[in-house]
Amino acid sequence: MMILNVTVEGSPGPVGTLVKLRASVEDTIKLVVDKYSKEGRSPQLGRDNVSFLDLHHSHFSLENKQVQSSNPTNKCI
């Protein structure tokens, strides 16, 4: 397991989520959207819209690996 901090555009701060190593991008997005909704954050995200969401590597990350999020079955790590 790893802690993944995801910032949703327009939200005041990152969502911290525990994600299994080798989780798919799609599964990771679903976990983040669920936690985001449970915390009552805005703008509201619907779980029905997860296919329209992507993960992008932070510009501030020290990692050189890029997450290719165009394919939802790709792994996060």
Based on DSSP secondary structure assignment, what is the total number of beta strands? 2
Strand content: 5-15%
Distance between the termini: 11 Å
User: Mind telling me the C-alpha Rg?
Assistant: 12 Å
Helix and strand pattern? EEH
* Stretches with pLDDT under 50, minimum 5 residues: 64-69
Annotation field: number of helices: 1
Helical percentage: 10-25%
* Average pLDDT taken over every residue: 78
Structural class: alpha+beta
Strand order, biggest sheet?
Answer: 1-2
Biggest sheet descriptor: 2 strands, antiparallel
Task: Indicate the overall shape.
Answer: globular
InterPro entries: At4g22758-like, DUF7054
Protein name: Ppr containing protein
Pfam family, one: DUF7054
Domain DUF7054: 2-64
Which key phrases capture this entry?
Ppr containing protein; DUF7054; 77 residues; At4g22758-like; alpha+beta
Descriptive report:
Pfam families: DUF7054. It comes from Thalictrum thalictroides. InterPro entries: At4g22758-like, DUF7054. Residues 2-64 form the DUF7054 domain. The protein has one helix at 25-38, and strands at 2-6, 15-19. The chain has a two-stranded antiparallel sheet with strand order 1-2. The protein has a domain at 2-52. A hairpin with an 8-residue loop joins strand 1 (2-6) and strand 2. With 77 residues, the protein is α+β, with helices and mostly antiparallel strands. Mean pLDDT is 78; it is low at 64-69. It contains 1 helix and 2 strands; from the N terminus they run E-E-H.
